[in-house]
Amino acid sequence: MKTPAPISTTNLTRRSFLRSTSAAVGGLALANLPIERFAHAAGSDTLKMALVGCGGRGTGAADQNLNVSKGTKLIAMADIARNRMDQSLEILKKAHPDQVDVSQANQFIGFDAYKEAIALADLVLVTTPQGFHPYHLAEAVKQGKHVFVEKPLAVDAPGIRRVLAAAEEAKKKNLKIGVGLQRHHQVAYQEAVKRIHEGAVGDITSMTCYWLGNARAGLERLPGEGELQYQLRNWYYFTWISGDFIVDQHIHNLDIMNWIKRGHPVRAQGMGGRQVRNDKKLHGQIFDHFFVEYEYEDGCKLFSQCRQGTPGTHQQVDEHVVGTKGRADLGVQNGKYFRITGPNAWESRLKAAEVGHQLEHFPLIEAIRENKPYNELEIAAMSTMTAILGRMAVYSGKLVEWDEAFNSKLQLMPEKVSWDMKPPVEPDADGNYPVAVPGKTVAL
Ligand SMILES: NC(=O)c1ccc[n+]([C@@H]2O[C@H](COP(=O)([O-])OP(=O)(O)OC[C@H]3O[C@@H](n4cnc5c(N)ncnc54)[C@H](O)[C@@H]3O)[C@@H](O)[C@H]2O)c1
């Protein structure tokens, strides 16, 4: 496959940036945006973009990517649902009338639609549910395209290995790959992690992280809807497509902890279950709470908690580090407050949390335009695997070593999905889906 040539650049002025992003940036203080750093990120040559998976995040990611450079045009879309694509196209056309031109011929529907959309593009946004990410990413890399792929990167270990193979191939082909772990692009996180790496809290002795919050609503079956159609529409609630919510959402916190530790845990054990997610019409098979104790190579422990869909309970989303010289608290008060206490005290108070979903598209476009190395896949694959390790430990009720988890052959996501196949899980005669039972479930 031919390596794509770099695309020449022109200047994106601060004024044109503000004009093109003011609607999307919304409540964010514009002064927070590192606009000057990306003053060269716009291009005169067209960068053709395809959107694969035209749901909520796909539409958001396309909008935010188009904000970065007027030289990017959305020219192809792929989805399995016509109504989702139509809604997405309408929103994007309104937001970017001069950057969205997706002819009928370039609108592809079905399980193989992604291949056709990818073929037309220079840059592909992969924003399907995560079970599909390894396959859609691998195809884009095979076709020699730059990619932005949403987190998490997979739901099982075979998927992670497929992603790592794609990461290698992408490097060889000089492709630029961004991943939707947006906290990496928030300046306050970057500053806090840098200080911790420079020794601000001394040697790290323990860490805690939390995502105790709201849930994506479960969806009821529509009249006449088939089993596979239903599970794919209510994908969040089926482990074979979402990986469970520890993988879908808590990955954001686990990713910060790995970033701080510059590595991944070597083992995990924990507990969890579903106490309130018990409506068989809505809640599929995922848990509603997990507690996982992870251990890193140097013996440092990470105590991680996530809970969803449990009204009336404490809410908290943040990360904390305790060291021999002080402590660090990251992302508290809904991402607005960061602080280090002790002899190297520091704090950052933001009026509004930085919009990582917007910021993450600047370095990707900059790397494509300026032909600089850019590949976020390996770090994101390790963070995804960390979340999968936690799920394996909790579902099985065992102490699970990283190596056995990483080498697991248990594949939840089928190689190929088609409308005439049976889904990997089915409800019993009473309509209940299989749910993991710690101590009994084979989870890796
Ligand atoms: N980084 C973040 O903060 C963040 C936030 C939300 C979602 N996400 C991620 O974005 C991804 C999409 O989530 P969402 O909220 O947009 O879900 P969604 O249900 O709104 O959209 C998913 C879309 O993908 C389509 N789709 C499903 N299978 C497909 C296939 N095989 N081929 C083509 N299209 C297919 C669906 O029809 C739908 O339009 C998920 O991986 C999710 O974890 C990330």
Task: Outline the fold blueprint.
Blueprint lengths: L8 E2 L3 H12 L16 E2 L3 E6 L3 H13 L3 E8 L2 H14 L11 E3 L3 H8 L2 E4 L6 H10 L3 E4 L7 H16 L4 E3 L7 H11 L6 E10 L13 H7 L5 H4 L2 H4 L2 H11 L5 E7 L15 E7 L5 E8 L7 E8 L3 E5 H4 L1 E5 L4 E4 L6 H4 L1 H10 L6 H20 L3 E2 H5 L38
Question: Keywords for this structure?
Answer:
444 residues; 2 domains; Dihydrodipicolinate Reductase, domain 2; 17 strands; alpha/beta; Rossmann fold; binds nicotinamide-adenine-dinucleotide; disordered N terminus; 34% helix; single chain
Q: Major sheet: order of its strands?
A: 16-15-14-13-9-12-11-10-17
Largest sheet: 9 strands, mixed
| Average pLDDT number | 92
Rg on CA atoms, Å: 21 Å
The class by helix and strand makeup works out as: alpha/beta
Task: Based on Cα principal axes, name the global outline.
Answer: globular
In CATH, the homologous superfamily of the largest domain goes by the name NAD(P)-binding Rossmann-like Domain
Please tell me about this protein's structure.
- The protein is an alpha/beta fold and 444 residues long.
- The chain folds into two domains: 9-183 and 357-375, NAD(P)-binding Rossmann-like Domain (Rossmann fold); 187-352 and 384-406, Dihydrodipicolinate Reductase, domain 2.
- It is built from 16 helices and 17 strands.
- The strands form three sheets. Strands 16-15-14-13-9-12-11-10-17 form a nine-stranded mixed beta sheet.
- Strand 6 (123-126), helix 5 and strand 7 form a beta-alpha-beta unit.
- The chain starts with 8 loop residues before the first strand and ends in a 38-residue tail after the last helix.
- Mean pLDDT is 92; it is low at 1-43.
- It binds nicotinamide-adenine-dinucleotide.
- Nicotinamide-adenine-dinucleotide (NAD) binds at residues 52-58, 78-81, 84, 111, 113-114, 127-130, 132, 150-151, 180, 182, 232, 248.
